[in-house]
Write a structure and sequence with these properties.
The complex is a heterodimer.
Chain A (H helix, E strand, L loop, with lengths): L2 E3 L3 E5 L4 E8 L3 E9 L6 E6 L3 E5 L2 E6 L4 E6 L8 E9 L7 E3 L3 E6 L1
Parallel strand pairs in A: 2-11
Antiparallel strand pairs in A: 1-3, 3-8, 4-5, 4-9, 6-7, 7-8, 9-10, 9-11
Chain B lengths: L4 E3 L2 E4 L5 E6 L6 E7 L6 E7 L2 E4 L8 E4 L6 E5 L8 E8 L12 E2 L3 E5 L1
Parallel strand pairs in B: 2-11
Antiparallel strand pairs in B: 1-3, 3-8, 4-5, 4-9, 5-6, 7-8, 9-10, 9-11
Classes of the chains: A mainly beta, B mainly beta.
Chain lengths: 112, 118
């Protein structure tokens, strides 16, 4: 089976930088995605890494190390609207299981 | 472009009653997913469709859950009879390709149908 671990909660102040880590144990790993979900809302796509290294999209960056089965999401210049849950998710190459498996999520609270 | 549309947004039923959820994916997306999300948890895959074919339903509790995707567009997820433990948000998502295949790994989610079983 697959397992993903991420911290359950993170708190930071407005304007700061926060890193949300994700470690995974899977077979047939293909890539790591990150999603944001506000309370009562739909999960929305933030980023995707299939290769080692850093991907930057505006204030958000995502990193992947395949050899360490580890990734992180980096949020810079935090804003109050960034308060939400963040999920890492793995996509697998196994035939017939090409869907995303999600972690339990990290609830980010941004304080003034 | 319209996003993934789900209905109803909220449903409250008594246990042992049936319930159905409807999903209209983004136009042109051939892959459709149903996920279940319990409070404080990540979404868990129930079933994935490629066009009208269910290609991954290993996590669908088939004794009480059923799904269909007629004509490869809209989809319906049914629970009969509902149990207390079925209380959750049922999320529908769609994508234009296989998550994990060539592409971005991006799924487009609807806002979900929140089910409360009393």
């Amino acid at each position: 089976g697959q397992s993903l671990e991420q911290p359950s909660e993170v708190t930071a102040v407005e304007g700061a930088i926060v890193q949300i880590n994700c470690t995974y144990q899977t077979s047939g790993f293909y890539g790591l995605s990150w999603y944001q979900q506000h309370d009562g809302g739909a999960p929305t796509f933030l980023s995707y890494n299939a290769l080692d290294g850093l991907e930057e999209t505006g204030r958000f960056s995502s990193f992947l190390s395949r050899s360490d089965s580890y990734g992180y999401l980096l949020l810079q210049e935090l804003q109050m609207k960034d308060s939400a849950s963040y999920f890492c998710a793995v996509s697998l190459l196994d035939t017939g299981r090409r869907a995303l498996t999600f972690g339990s999520g990290t609830r980010l609270q941004v304080q003034p | 472009e319209a996003g993934v549309v789900q209905s109803p947004r909220y449903k409250i039923i008594e246990k042992k009653q049936p319930v159905a959820f409807w999903c209209n994916p983004i136009s042109g997306h051939n892959t459709l997913y149903w996920y279940r999300q319990n409070l404080g948890q990540g979404p868990e895959l129930l079933i994935r469709y490629e066009n009208e074919e269910a290609v991954d339903d290993s996590q669908l509790p088939k004794d009480r859950f059923s799904a269909e995707r007629l004509k490869g567009v809209d989809s319906t997820l049914k629970i009969q009879p509902a149990e207390l433990g079925d209380s959750a948000v049922y999320l529908c998502a769609s994508s234009s390709g296989l998550a994990g295949g060539p592409g971005t790994g991006e799924l487009f989610f609807g806002e979900g149908s929140r089910l409360t079983v009393l």
